[in-house]
Each structure stands twice: as structure tokens, then as C-alpha cells.
Amino acid sequence: MISQTARRTLPTVFLVLTAAGCSVGEEPGRGPVALDVRPLSGATAFSHADAVRLHDREERAVAACMSSRGQKYTVQPRTASARNEETNPYGLLTQRKATQDGYGIVGEYLYRLSAPAPADEPRKGAWQAALTGTPAHQVSLRLPDGVSLHYSTDGCVARARAEVYGADWNTVEPLTVGLANRVMGAVETDPGYRAAVRRWSACMTKAGHPAKDLQAPRKAIDSRLRKAASDQEALRTLGSDEILTARADADCQADTGLSETVRDVQRAVEKRLLTADDRKTVASYVADKRKALAAGAA
């Protein structure tokens, strides 16, 4: 829950960060399209508008299923801004986005202050069983990235996902995400990628923002946010520091050709790792996603 103190800091900090270039709206980072490398040719990526539309359809399907079982379920709004879809999974960053929104950390915090809180539902045994299913119908999947997934096919969540995307979605979707994670893991351990990150790290140190890896600057800002959240002056300072760090980050990525290296390494990794069956899984995922989007637009 967001404290009243934090809410009172919103109007002033909003104005300060917007003036500094930190967008807190739902579409940060507008500008020229840069090299945005993502696993599986971006198969698992959604635009913000598509993500919201499909989320709403899933929620309505869950509510209808729960109602048919005599259970109340309040449709939950999607509270995240467009940053979730726009953030590159490798941490690649353009100068345009860095200047407007930094890493999106303070901007997302401010955005969520004004987002509606999710409804608090009664989570008794019968209600939970109707929503997520029962042990008797549990399915276990071992994903390509080593993660084990368990879900029950008789729950309203699983049935809503199958209704919106297709009968195989509860299997195809996690398998494809697992493949994307496996590709990313292989890219990030590749010698060519690591050499590029070392060049970027040296550039960041020279720019006055030492960082060993691409997530380090984000973690540093995020750790400061926990302390600054209830202090208007500290939050304003953090927003400015975030943008300065992100701009240096984007400059160093451009100067060291990091995104081009990620593209080349990922291409080689996918050629080496992905089997014919893997590619069929990804193709099924893409087909299901397209059908769901087309049905939603009809």
C-alpha cells in the first residue's frame, strides 16, 4: 500500500521530473526507433496496447468462469505502464529513452502512485480452488531454462487463458518464454558479449558511473528508491541522478557498439541452440498470439 506521505509528494515531484525529462506517462521513450534486440526475433514481446487489451479479455473470461462456479471475482485492471513492454530484456538503452525517462524506475513509481489498487478478494479454499484449480488436475512442465512450472487445468485462470489464446497456450506460452530465457542466458555468458560488457563498463567508469554489468545501475537506483520514496527532495534528486546515469549508459552502449554485439551473438546462439521442435513451439506461440489479437479486434 502507498502511504499518504508518498502520495503527497506526487504533484511536486511529478512536475520537477517532467521538466527534467523524466516522463511519467504511459508512453515513455518516443522517438526514432533504435536497435532493440530481443530473443526469438521479439516473439514474446507485446505492444502496450495489445498487452492491455489481452489482459482485459483474460480478466473478463476469468470473471465469467468464476461466476459460473458461484464465486465472485472482480476484474483486475492492468496497472503497469508501457514501460514493462518497452524495457529491453538485455538492458539495451537508447539516448532518446534515457533522456526522457532514465531507466523508468522513478517514473514508474510515480505512475503507480496514481494507479488504482487491485480489488481485495476473499481467498478462501473454495474460491482459490475455483480460480487456480485443484491438485487432482495439476500439470507439471520442465521449461527450457530449467524452471519447473505447475498449474491446474481445471482452474478458471488456465481455462480463461485457453479461451483467449487457444487450447495449447498454457503449454506453448511458458515453453516459449523458457526458450527466450535460455537464449538470453547463453548470450550473456558468451565471450563476445562479455568482452563488449567489459568495454561498456570501462566507459561507464570513465564517465563517473562505475558498473560491472548492465543491471548494476538500475539496481543502484532501485535501492535508493526505497529510502527516497517518502522524501520529496530525495525523490527529486534521485530522478535527476537516474537520468544522468542512464544518459551515460546509453552513450557508452553506443560508443562500444553493444547492441550490435548483442545482435550478432544472439543470432549465433539461436542458430546453435534452437532445435526444429523449438522453432515449431515458437511458431505456435506466435500463431496463437496473432489469433487472439485478431479476435480481440473483431
Q: What's a concise summary of this model?
A:
The chain has 298 residues and is mainly alpha-helical.
The side-by-side strand order for the widest beta sheet comes to: 1-2
* Helix-strand topology string: HHHHHHEEHHHHHHH
Number of separate strands? 2
Number of helices: 13
Strand residue percentage = under 5%
The portion of residues assigned to helices is 55-70%
C-alpha Rg (nearest Å): 21 Å
Overall shape: globular
- Arithmetic mean of pLDDT: 88
The secondary-structure class comes to mainly alpha
Low-confidence runs (pLDDT<50, min 5 residues)? Answer: 1-33
Most strands sheet:
2 strands, antiparallel
Terminal CA distance reads 38 Å
Quaternary: single chain
Protein name: Lipoprotein
Organism: Streptomyces phaeofaciens
Describe what this molecule looks like in 3D:
The chain contains 13 helices and two strands. The model is unreliable at 1-33 (pLDDT under 50). The longest helix is centred in the last third of the chain and has 25 residues, at 232-256. A hairpin with a 5-residue loop joins strand 1 (138-142) and strand 2. The protein is globular and about 60 Å long. It has helices spanning 4-20, 48-68, 83-86, 95-101, 105-113, 125-132, 156-165, 169-188, 191-206, 216-228, 232-256, 258-273, 276-297; strands at residues 138-142, 148-152. The chain has 298 residues and is mainly α. Strands 1-2 form a two-stranded antiparallel ribbon. 63% of the residues lie in helices and 3% in strands.
